Amino acid sequence: MSEEASDADRFLALVAAAQGRDIRLTSIQAGLLVAAELGIARDSRAFARLLGIAHSLVLRELNDLAEREGLLQIVKRDLRTMRVHYTLPPRGEV
């Protein structure tokens, strides 16, 4: 098995685990959280590009996730590109 395949499998396993801990999370929302935790992607465009999904879908899921208390923080919005930069809150705040 290639390293890229094992990385993808690990990512998907972490997404499934996040959804197992919170059944309200969609796959994209769980993916956003896992990507932030692993440092894979910290903005909406990078996440959309890496996963091959529409940026508009990522934006919708990211905004829904940011509205939920303590899961994710939006740190910057670029109005020209619509890119949204996000981070996980510090561990002590959750």
Topology summary:
Blueprint: H1 3-21, H2 27-38, H3 44-51, H4 55-67, E1 73-77, E2 84-87
Antiparallel strand pairs: 1-2
Helix pairs in contact: 1-2, 3-4
Structure description:
The protein has 94 residues and is mostly helical. Helices cover 55% and strands 10% of the residues. It contains four helices and two strands; from the N terminus they run H-H-H-H-E-E. The protein has a two-stranded antiparallel sheet. Strand 1 (73-77) and strand 2 (84-87) form a beta hairpin. Helix 3 (44-51) crosses helix 4 (55-67). The longest helix is centred in the N-terminal third of the chain and has 19 residues, at 3-21. The mean pLDDT is 89.
Strand content: 5-15%
Largest sheet: 2 strands, antiparallel
| Mean pLDDT value | 89
Strand order of the largest sheet: 1-2
Q: Helix content range of the residues, please? A: 55-70%
How many extended strands? 2
Computed structural class: mainly alpha
SSE succession: HHHHEE
Radius of gyration, whole Å: 13 Å
| Distance separating the two termini | 37 Å
Assembly annotation: single chain
Q: Number of helix segments?
A: 4
Shape assignment: globular
- Ranges where pLDDT stays below 50 over 5 or more residues in a row are none
Structure described in brief:
This protein has four helices and two strands. It is mainly alpha-helical. Helix 1 packs across helix 2 (27-38) and helix 3 (44-51) packs across helix 4 (55-67).
List keywords for this structure.
two-stranded antiparallel ribbon, 94 residues, globular, 2 strands, 10% strand, mainly alpha
